[in-house]
Amino acid sequence: MAFNWFRRPNNEPADTPQTQEETPAVEATSPETTAPDTGDLLAFAKAAYKNIQEKQQLETELSVAVEEEETITEEIVEAEQEEITAPIETDATVAEITEDIVSEVQPEIAPEPEPANLSFLERAAAQREAKQEKLIASAIETPEPEAPITPTAPEIEIPELVFDDGFKWSAKVLAAQGRKAEDISIEEITWLKKLRQGLDKTRRNLLNQLKSIVGQGPLNQAAVNEIESLLLQADVGVEATDHIISALQKKLLAEVTPPEQAIAYLKEILREMLDAPLQNKEKPSFAPEKDTLTIWLITGVNGAGKTTTIGKISHLAQNSGYKCLIGAADTFRAAAVEQVKVWGNRSGVEVIANPGKNTDPAAVVFDAIAAAQSRETELLLIDTAGRLQNKKNLMDELSKIRKIIDKKAPNARVESLLVLDSTLGQNGLRQAEVFSQAAQLSGVVLTKLDGTAKGGVALAVVQQLGLPIRFIGAGEGIEDLRPFSSYEFVEALLSG
Fold this sequence. Notes:
496 residues, alpha/beta
């Protein structure tokens, strides 16, 4: 069964992690609560590890059983075909034997005259050779019985699963969200480990210094300046930094707070900031609906990873059980259509494109919608041009595409997502501001959040643009893009 990333359980932290045995309550977000029992979390991680191993073993055995069944079916079909053709071959063999017998009997009835110049011994030797040749020609080859081959059980290979600190941390994060050990999947563990690794540099620079600052006592002006400097270095941005400092001062200005509780309070502030754009929405979830057409316009400047993001989202949707289609409407950038087709082949998703050069993007969108409706597609991803040279042309083009969608698919759910390169920091934020003015954006896809990227740019995007983060990418692989979870992001950013 496919793991549906768009329909994961609620990512809100739960009061108690659900293990296989009753465990004391663990409140992951409240700074006033005591730290969770390390033994219970370790038992939870071990239970999750064991269940994942059993699932992998079962899936591997099922795949091996299916392969064996297919092999046996092929052998049965071949045996039946041989049985059908066997009588025909037997009749032909009998006919050949009959002819040989007749040919052997005929010389005895009417022997051919022998040459007169041969002696008696020579004639006898010639007759023996002739009879021997006839016997050899009329002999029936009987195949030697083949020794029965006993099938050996194939070795079952299970994907590598390491019970390391990354696994235990990932299990702890999922437990805090109310997940059961038997429901945790290897896909979630793998993703959380990648996310934590991508934010490792930011976390190490930020966490240790924050703990040392807040552990010195009530916040004074010097401590506030240090925290402000740390946040700005992490690309959090001026507006988001001011908001965080103001909230921290209300809590920590007049009382001594242990470092761990201060960090827990900071996590709560960050989560509230990241979830703020969703508070005013009637339906915060943007997951595609089954048997309903959903259209996502993917925008962004060239080089931000827009086309790559489309390929990864299509792969994610396909694996989550949705019928997906791609419309290659970026007809201005050289080789953009070919690049989309490559990603479509990798993800197994069809790409609707116009073979001509510099064709009208709106015409491609029209054809893509028609194809999506005829194929009963549930998610249509449309690649749009990423030009910033002329904001008016960009606005006109996106407006034209919107009109086509409203006319051709009036009942479709439409989202406009901006792909933002997180390595650009504040420069990328300024690009986002231009696009937000030209397009009706409804969310952000944050890419390249690994290596040199600083995770604080996510807070800056949400605070300054008021847009929710919909997806986050932490690598170059096709599996390295997942729906955004504020809880998991903050834990990866500020958990030691």
